Amino acid sequence: MKNIGILYEDNFIIIVNKPAGLAVQGGKDVKSSLDKILAQLSNSDRIPLLVHRLDKDTSGALLAAKGKEAAARFSGLLNESAKKIYTAVCAGSPDKEVGVIANELFINGKIKKSKTKYKVIKKGNFLLSEDDGGKSNIEFSILEIELATGRMHQIRRHLSMIGNPILGDDKYGDFPLNKKLKKNGVRRLLLHSSRLIIKGEVELDIRAPLPQYFDAFT
Asked: Tell me, what's the pLDDT at 196?
């Protein structure tokens, strides 16, 4: 499926491991998108419909439902009882090992309450080769993140707000650092939807393995 791994599938849903760089929906100037790929590969009249979204540059677990009835059902489950767990590699480390970022976000002209839970699971140093031939270390941390609200670019914006932007983030990140990282082979946003837990009438705990480009930090 064009490098899209299937993590789970039954008669009602399909959960895929979306690669970074693939848009989830078609639109102007979008040549390829996950919804189009799923529609083309569907072997029934119940075309898979996206139940939630990931940024184009974010990889990981994404659920699509087979048909409108299943979409309505699983949309409710995701909103009511599901846990969406992400893995991010950020610059530096938050002040607290476990915490909540509750900064309000300005979305489409309105202030929205937003909440991101995080836990530091690893700290380390990444060795950078400089243009002058020298070496330097950057401190990083790997965070396990749970969304309590689902605002646009919420994780990326919240981590940037507390001074720990996600490595490779070309919209809210540390641009001079990202430039150095690209020269050292780090060319992707280091944010991954790593786990999707659904409870209630359906019990699922689906994990998406990290992409290879995380290996230098894990």
From this structure: 95
